[in-house]
């Protein structure tokens, strides 16, 4: 047997779809009724705006009408009323569902983001706690605990008392962040500095594998004081900066007249004769 619809079935489906498409008033009445669940009849009627469009669904067995939502606070939202055709004998449409859906320019809440992904640098305040996850890639176990108390005491003395320490990934990530940050070589103040931190007397190198690239500034007048700075960072407070002393009184430029050519001109005889007494 063929699965293709017969002529009668196709005609009936087209007639049912036309019936659903023309049932705009039924769909509007259903939307107004839904809007009236928490408003008076006048407000409910005003909450359903103009008919926007209609979309056939499920091969024509259902049809959804969209109306503008004019309720305050629902800018860009739409009433969606889905109708279904009744039996072929009665030729009626029934309401299946009435909901409000956001349109393309609807005002909706932002996408939910888990708390641990919402935290940003600088969010931590006084009294806040930010635990590191057990599988934090930035950390690795510091050392294996021993049952010997003497070993534990020695471990604490040499600095091995931390449960977790920075991993290679953690060091690489921190180095990249510091290098590209506001105290890295690309900072505007570093590009105009007379020297770099690596040659400054106030530069205190870090210990370990980060020693060659970063340190702490110890100049209280520097914008990087007490912070990690890259060796190629710099500012105007470099220890080798020398300013030439100048006079506190502005001195005008000297003018020399030895470069002026003088030309001798004889006075006329009339000017040399004495005046009549």
Explain how this protein is built.
The protein is 25% helix and 19% strand. The protein is of the alpha+beta class. Among the domains are: 92 residues; 34 residues, no CATH class; 63 residues, no CATH class. The chain has a 4-stranded antiparallel beta sheet with strand order 1-2-3-4. It has a 3-stranded antiparallel beta sheet with strand order 7-8-9. The protein is flat, with a radius of gyration of 43 Å. It starts with 6 loop residues before the first helix and ends in a 5-residue tail after the last helix. The N terminus is likely disordered. This is DUF3027 domain-containing protein. It comes from Pseudonocardia dioxanivorans (strain ATCC 55486 / DSM 44775 / JCM 13855 / CB1190). It holds the Pfam family DUF3027. InterPro entries: DUF3027.
